[in-house]
Amino acid sequence: MVSILAGVLGLLLALVGTANATTPGAGAGTGTGKRVFNAMQIVFGPDTPDAFCTIGAVGNDKYGRKIAISAGHCLRDARYADHDIPEDVQPVYDRSDVGFGPIGYVRYFKDPAGSMVGHATKDYMVIELVPAVIPSSQGPYLRQTGEVEVAGGQPSPNALNPSLPRERLLGAALFDNNELVVSGQLGVFYGRITNNSQGVYQSWAAHKGGDSGGPAIWHVPGSPYPSTANNFQASGPWAGITKAIVLGVPPFVYTSSANILADLRARDAAHPGVYGAGFHVTDNP
């Protein structure tokens, strides 16, 4: 069984605790009509509710599988890291409804130790959802409308050549006013991207421990900001997932969707059939 450790990545100031996963019961995943959505808090064992991370995006891959994306550093086990896991060894539960049974199984995660020594651009997890759940684009605050696509610009360091628009990075120069809108335990926040280090964004959009893997969308210029007027709702294309709180200004760090999508395509080109390859956010409400 994969052992669980909420990762301490870079100079994290706070994240979740440690837990051991358990094997699902006989009735796991037998419910119907359950929605899985961005910002859903997830645990890796029903007896460890305080060791949680968060879903960043939900959709389908090019092979027709239902997929959710979270942060790779939420898990730690060298036996399973950095390669696809076809076996159902690590279940994932909705933290608020563990009685449903697993909503999916981890199929890939990046080893956190590797992330600290040169693979920081690949800090993500792929979860294959069980057939009984319904992927949804609508989270508590954010509705995701596809993926960010950048015309021109810098490609992700993980991208094949030529790169695709969805594998190119949002700019963070003085006159690039790209903003992230994020959702987590603090509610919904937004802030400008102030730095882009190989597709790892720094932003004033705030999060806290346990939000790792949670959703970030790009604020489409001219679209409404979340406010009391719209019940703090926002919509836009998926731009990344929560990564870390660092000793920096601003301290909030995100892994770009471009880095994740580019790495999935590159891995699939080398070994066709990779879980999550060609991921697209669902259109389901």
Spell out the key features of this protein:
Thrombin, subunit H, 19 strands, 2 helices, 285 residues, mainly beta
Describe this structure in words.
This protein is mostly beta strands. It folds into 2 domains: 3-25 and 33-135, no CATH class; 142-258, Beta Barrel (Thrombin, subunit H), CATH 2.40.10. Helix content is 7%, strand content 32%. It is built from 2 helices and 19 strands. The protein has helices spanning 112-116, 257-270, and strands at residues 3-5, 18-20, 34-36, 41-43, 52-54, 57-60, 66-70, 91-94, 104-109, 125-129, 133-135, 142-147, 179-184, 187-197, 200-203, 215-218, 234-245, 252-256, 280-281. A hairpin with a 2-residue loop joins strand 13 (179-184) and strand 14 (187-197). The protein is globular and about 45 Å long.
Task: Give the % helix.
Answer: under 10%
Helix and strand composition category: mainly beta
The count of DSSP E runs of length 2 or more, i.e. the number of strands, is: 19
- Rg over CA atoms, rounded to whole Å, is 17 Å
Query: Hey, roughly how much beta strand do the residues contain?
Result: 25-35%
Poorly predicted residue ranges = 1-31
Work out the helix count: 2
Q: How many angstroms separate the termini?
A: 34 Å
Calculate the mean pLDDT score and round it: 88
Total number of domains: 2
